[in-house]
C-alpha cells in the first residue's frame, strides 16, 4: 500500500510539472521576446517546438515503454525533460531556446504516454479510479497554477526562472521514480514504427515552418511554398505507410472508429483556437497595455477556474446529456468567449466575461471529447487511440498557432505599411523597419526608435492583427461545433470500448 501511494505521489509530481510548464511559459513570452530579441515567428516556435515534439513522440513513448519497461522509459523522459529545461534557461539565443523546447517536449511525451499505464499496473481495479482522480486533480492544479507562478517568478527573477523551476521538481521525481515505482512491460507490445514517426514529425514541422514563414514572406515565395509542399508530401506518405505497415503507429482499424476520428479532428480544430488566443492575449496585456506579469498571471484565473470546475463536473454532464451535445455546447461557449476576447476591450470586466466563457467551454468539451473518442475503440488498441488523441491536440496547438500567427502578423504589417506611407518622408524608412516589432506587440521598442507620436498608429496596427487572429480562433471553434454533427450520438451497438474508463479518467488521458 505504501509503495502504491508513493508511486501515485511521483506520477502526480511529474504531471504537475508538465501542466505547469504549459501555462507558465505563455506568461513569460513577452520577457523572452525582449530578452532574446525574437521576431513574432520565432516567438511562436517557443510554443510550437514543444507542442510538435509532444505530438510526434507521445505514440513512440507508449510503444517504447511497453517494450523496454515503463519505469525505465518514464525515468528517461524525466531526465530528458530536466535537461531540456536547463537548456532553455541557459539558452543564449532564439535557436538554442527553440531546440531546448523540443528536447523538453520529447521528455514530456515519454511521461505523458506512460503515467496512466504505470498507475493502471500499480493499483488494483477497486482502487484505480480514486488514484486516477487524485492524479487528474493535481494535474489540473498545475495547469491553473502556471500563470500565477510565472507572474511571481518574473516579478523577482528573469525569464529563465520559468524553466529553472522545473529542475528541482524533476530531480525529486527522478529519485522517487528510481526508488518506489515498480517496473512493468507488455511482452506482446507493438514494434516502434520508425518510418511513421519520421514522416509524421517531418510533415508537422514542415507545415508549421511554412505557415510561420508566411508572416514575413509572400505566400507564393519558396520559403513558404517549399516547406508546405514538403510537409504535405510527408504527411501523405505517412498516411500511405499507415495503411501498409504491419506495425503502424495508427493501426488502420482505428481509422474505422468513427467516434475516435471525429473527436480527434474536433480536438485539433479547437486547440488551433486555444493556443493562438492565449498567445495574443498575453502580448496584448504585457507588451501593449503594459501590465505586470503578476497582473497578467492573475487575470488568467478567470479562465482556469471555470475550466477546472467544469472538468470536475464531467461525470454529471455525461449522465444527463449525450457527448455530442456537451461537446457542441462547449465549443459554442468557447467561441462566444473568444469572440469577446477578440474585442481587446480596455474595460477588463468585459474581457473577464470572455475568459470565463472560454474556460467553461473548454472545461466542458475536453472531458466529453475524450470520453466520446474512446468509446468505440477496438480491443487492444486503447494505447494507440490515446496517443492519436493526444497528438491531435498538440498538432492543433502548434499548427494552429502558426495559422493564427500568420493571420495576425500579415494584417498588422499591412496596416502598419499603410500608416507608414502617410508619415513624413524622413521617418518612412525607419518606420518600415519596425514592422515586425509592431506585429509582435513591442510597442515600447517602436516608440523608442520613432518617438511617442507613433505609438497610436503602432497600437492600432497591432490591434488590427489581434482582432483578425483572435476572431479567426472564434471561427475555428464554430467549425468545431459544426463538426460535432459527425459524431455518433451514442456508442454503436456491439462496439463498446474495450478499455472502459469514466469520463474523468478519460479526460485526463489528454490533459
Task: Report how far the terminal alpha carbons are from each other.
Answer: 27 Å
Tally the helices: 21
Order of helices and strands: HHHHHHHHHHHHHHHHHHHHH
- The total number of structural domains is 3
Roughly what is the average pLDDT, rounded to an integer? 84
**Total number of strands:** 0
Give the overall shape.
globular
CATH class of the largest domain: Mainly Alpha
CATH third-level topology of the largest domain = Growth Hormone, Chain: A
Task: Please identify the structural class as seen in this structure.
Answer: mainly alpha
Strand content: under 5%
CATH superfamily of the largest domain, by name, is MFS general substrate transporter like domains
What level of helicity do the residues show? Answer: over 70%
CA gyration radius, whole angstroms: 22 Å
CATH architecture annotation of the largest domain: Up-down Bundle
Task: List low-pLDDT spans.
Answer: 491-511
For the largest beta-sheet, the strand count, sense and barrel status come to: none
Overview of this structure, please?
The chain is an all-alpha fold and 511 residues long. The protein folds into three domains: 1-180, Up-down Bundle (Growth Hormone, Chain: A), CATH 1.20.1250; 194-248; 254-511, Growth Hormone, Chain: A (Up-down Bundle), CATH 1.20.1250. Helices cover 79% and strands 0% of the residues. It has helices at residues 2-36, 40-68, 70-89, 94-122, 125-156, 161-164, 166-180, 194-213, 222-244, 258-288, 293-299, 301-312, 314-320, 323-341, 348-374, 382-420, 425-432, 435-439, 443-450, 455-483, 503-508. Helix 1 (2-36) runs antiparallel to helix 7 (166-180) and helix 10 packs antiparallel against helix 15 (348-374). The longest helix is centred in the last third of the chain and has 39 residues, at 382-420. The radius of gyration is 22 Å and the shape is globular. Residues 491-511 have low confidence and may be disordered.
